[in-house]
Write a structure and sequence with these properties.
The structure holds 2 protein chains of 2 kinds. In chain A, α1 runs antiparallel to α2. In chain A, the strands form 2 sheets. A 5-stranded antiparallel β-sheet of chain A has the order 4-3-5-6-7. Chain A has a two-stranded antiparallel ribbon with strand order 1-2. By secondary structure, chain A is an alpha+beta fold. In chain A, β1 and β2 form a beta hairpin. Chain A has 8 helices and 7 strands. Chain B is mostly helical. The chains are: A alpha+beta, B mainly alpha. Chains A and B meet through α1, α3, α4, α6 and α7 of A and α2, α6, α7, α9 and α11 of B.
């Protein structure tokens, strides 16, 4: 039960939530399965092999030249198992992504959650909670990079990062015009924005930009560059 | 009428008895722990390798300011962002780099002892427990390898997996004591070995069934392009296989074979007639993943886990034959070198 029900629960999740009967059956063994790490879905390369998700970070350590790194990176992360752990980390950030609620910045959300009435606690909606979770993961990754790439005086470096999607070439298009798998047209910066109106894909704010030739040191401060420039520099 | 009823009762009882016998045979037939001993060596080595790789940048993974910091790792499980989970780790609360290093060295030593089969009655459950604490700390950076290596270590933890190919076996033989007690398990048949074998076998069936069913919900596993899209993923790729694009019949056949192999594994791995073919499929699929999709550890560990379907008696016969062959060759060599024929 503890082995078979978690993947069944994973597969029986739909837009209306999980199957009630599977949830009920799983309840007695759920915690046991979680503790032994059996609460997995086993959906490897499923339902379809999809694009990869990377993290692009610009680091500005004090007086040194800023640098752009990617997670994962063959040149930085060796052996392969270490590379794969960084790859999974980038996928984890993307899997946690939830857009900000409409017309609200994250600061406003945070303010709104403070109740003025003593003893009354405002329970955040699931969307708020998921957004907070994404922001925590994102901040943790940035904080780690700032901690590793320190300034000369020992203070943490300035770091800005963003998600980048690396699409797979469509088979038919590839047969018409074979391209390199690291062709710039396959990279798309995933912008962070508010919840889009119904019917529009939440990730459609991503931009496909072919120009990756601009050298990194010709650009402005890290944050401005990531916010204002949607191109993806060469990865190695 | 009463005769019909009594006949029916007798038939039902006989049928039920056969089911109970089959159930007993399936779970409680004592088996030679040779298969589990071999799996222990491979699982231990891969687990140790995983810990060694982690050690190359330990603080980035388990330190207080790791990629997923300690407090976030805790919040991801303790209910801060959803239902509270039972997946807990004491590593969330250790922030001292010195303590984390001491802990990791202990983990590596214990796992190394488990791999070489030293005091496996103690080191096997400890190696599994340490791995469990690590996976609950490493949320966000885990993948299939961590799952299968953790499950395999868990099933080995309560078995006499140190009975062969181990320091325990060497120690036991040196004492001239075939029954070394609980601490140094002998090579005698064991019910615990069978129970663990069955549990791992069933777990593999569940993994493949749901892996296959999840694929069957996609489009590319049906139109035959999934293998092409897998090899066209640069982040996974270890060898460029994009030439497969020119062989659509080949990659679509591989796609369909993979999905159907996974779905039907649960049924076809048990009959003696189809088992070798299913195991050959496991070697082909996981060997391909290891060689071409950059997941060497995952591919190898899945092959190791599939080894649990190799019958212990069949394996024991081959090992005995190999030992006899070696024993026959040894005296012949020594007689030639020590006492040349005149």
């Amino acid at each position: 039960m503890a082995i078979a029900l978690p993947p069944l629960a994973f597969q029986s999740r739909g837009s209306d939530g999980s199957s009630p009967s599977v949830t009920t059956a799983l309840a007695p063994v759920r915690h046991y399965a979680e503790f032994i790490y059996a609460d997995r879905g086993y959906a490897f390369f499923a339902p379809d092999p999809g694009p990869s998700h990377l993290i692009q970070a610009v680091i500005e350590p004090g007086s040194d030249q800023e640098q752009t790194i990617f997670l994962p990176s063959h040149s930085l992360h060796w052996p392969r198992l270490l590379y794969h752990r960084h790859f999974m980390l980038a996928e984890f950030l993307n899997a946690n992504y939830r857009p900000a609620p409409p017309q609200q910045s994250d600061e406003q959300q945070s303010d709104d959650l403070q109740s003025d009435v003593p003893g009354v606690e405002i329970v955040p909606s699931p969307l708020d909670s998921e957004r907070q979770r994404f922001l925590r993961v994102w901040q943790s990754i940035d904080r780690h990079l700032a901690d590793v790439y320190r300034n000369q005086d020992g203070s943490p470096a300035t770091v800005a990062s963003r998600r980048v999607e690396h699409a797979l070439p469509i088979y038919a298009a590839y047969m018409d015009e074979p391209i390199e798998l690291d062709d710039p047209r396959l990279y798309r910066v995933l912008l962070d924005g508010p919840v889009p109106p119904p019917g529009i894909d939440s990730d459609s704010g991503g931009t496909i930009l072919p120009d990756q030739t601009q050298p990194a040191n010709d650009r402005g401060p890290a944050m401005d560059r990531l916010e204002g420039n949607h191109s993806v520099p060469s990865r190695n | 009428m009463s005769s019909f009823a009594s006949n029916s009762c007798r038939a039902a009882a006989a049928h039920g008895g056969r089911w109970i016998d089959a159930w007993d045979r399936f779970w409680f037939t004592a088996v030679d722990p040779i298969t589990l001993s071999m799996i222990r060596v491979a699982c231990g080595i891969l687990l140790l390798y995983s810990h060694l790789v982690l050690a190359t940048d330990l603080m980035s993974w388990v330190g207080p300011n790791a990629w997923i910091d300690s407090s976030l790792a805790s919040d991801l499980h303790n209910g801060a962002y959803g239902p509270a989970e039972a997946s807990r780790s004491y590593l969330w609360h250790i922030t001292s780099p010195t303590l984390l290093w001491i802990h990791h060295i202990v983990v590596m030593v214990v796992t190394g002892l488990f791999a070489i089969g030293c005091l496996t009655r103690i080191t096997a459950p400890l190696a599994w427990f340490f791995q469990l604490m690590l996976v609950h700390r490493l949320t966000g950076s885990l993948f299939g390898f961590d799952q299968i290596v953790t499950y395999t270590a868990m099933y080995l933890a309560l078995t006499p997996c140190g009975a062969r190919f181990s320091v325990d076996a060497w120690w036991r033989n040196r004492r001239g004591d075939q029954d070394g007690g609980w601490m140094l398990p002998g090579t005698e048949r064991s019910i615990a070995a069978n129970v663990a074998t069955r549990l791992l076998q069933i777990h593999l069936c569940v993994i493949y069934l749901f892996g296959g069913l999840a694929k069957s919900r996609g489009e590319t596993w049906w139109d035959g392009t999934a293998v092409w899209y897998s090899v066209a993923n640069l982040e996974y790729q270890s060898i460029d296989m994009t030439w497969l694009a020119n062989w659509p019949t080949l990659f679509s056949a591989l796609t369909h074979a993979t999905m159907f192999w996974e779905i039907f594994y649960i049924a076809l791995i048990w009959p003696k007639l189809t088992r070798p073919w299913m195991l050959a499929g496991a070697v082909a699929i996981h060997g391909g993943i290891a060689a071409f999709l950059g997941m060497i550890t995952f591919g190898v560990m899945m092959m190791v886990a599939n080894f649990v379907f190799v019958p212990p008696d069949w394996l024991a016969e081959r090992v005995s034959a190999a030992n006899v062959f070696r024993a026959k060759k040894k005296p012949a060599r020594s007689s030639q070198t020590d006492r040349p024929v005149r």
